[in-house]
């Protein structure tokens, strides 16, 4: 089982083999057994089957390659909307806009999604998370007719792998694990060593060989503004409002 | 494997059996292979060993029972701080305060945590997520000396189960799965049926039998203000700031 987890790498090209509804639903059902904050189950999945919508989704998320060949094209949504319906059955309204409830929905969705990934990979399928869905959350919300309090958090493609990336070396345990108190004094040394590991990995990998480490890529990734519309978008959908 | 996922239920009482560092680190290493947005790996785990700190954590998260008997007491943190160090090695600063980067860190942490749960459960351990860590995020941050851009997202206890809850029936697939467009018209019927299922479950379960459904519990849970300090707390740690 640990070997299965450790062998994860994104799959961006799939064989032309479908996944039956029965198999898909079995994997979803297993995934739903992830823990959920106060059992709110604050997530939804949109399965995009319509070829026109799928094409549009691929374009809007800037991930044409993945979506073109995948057996399943999914969008995972953080969802307080259904809970609003639950509350309305008792004449109540939910407080959608609090940061705490936003966290509940985002974390619930991510735990569920990762459980789904494990389910799918245990059956021999490959997957790719599509963070690119957050490049155009507003048009994608319109495309999928997502109401307030439902936001596309990430997409996912699933299918039988036609090719698979090599597994990337992760940060060493001591970088992510702290005992009793957070210790940042250790980072500079650890990160420089990790850069050497990643440089070797990037230089030697079979596809997209390049001469980067890790810290330089992260510095570039996180020092430039990205998706600066996100807070406005979230608030336009009813999340993260001051109540 | 699907059976393993489907058998998940929180464990709140553990046998007095330790988990070796070797085993813990193996499970963490496997967990790190969860996908990560642009490979940022924006998470940290604090393992709380010091009995005084552990006692304080149990009190602050209002989960004494879990923390008292668990082999491992963990706090999972969304962490952009380490990425700040990575950027500083290249004379750059990261944009910590954007909603997008906040999402990156929260989702990364949750995917990693859920992978860890699967790893632990595959080895026969039980776990319990402790959302209660968000009852007192500021004092817990002080206790664990978390700097800016590191926030305690949830805790977790891990150990050999002494008792285990029964598995709760999840929402039916059709409640969480939508085809091409989001369909909320179906909810009222589905949720009423689910209430019957949950009523039967709660009535018949061996511990904490009660006469609730699901929608009534959710209505109560989400219509009252909870953790209203959360947005202020997040912003005080450098997240979700208008840049």
From TrEMBL, chains A, B:
This is Oxygen-insensitive NADPH nitroreductase. InterPro entries: Flavin_OxRdtase_Frp, Nitroreductase, Nitroreductase-like. One of its GO terms (molecular function) is FMN reductase (NADPH) activity. SUPFAM superfamilies: FMN-dependent nitroreductase-like. Gene3D superfamilies: NADH Oxidase. It comes from the Bacteria. Belongs to the flavin oxidoreductase frp family. Its EC number is 1.5.1.38. Keywords: Flavoprotein, FMN, NADP, Oxidoreductase. It comes from Siminovitchia fortis. Signal peptide: none annotated. Residues 7-159 form the Nitroreductase domain.
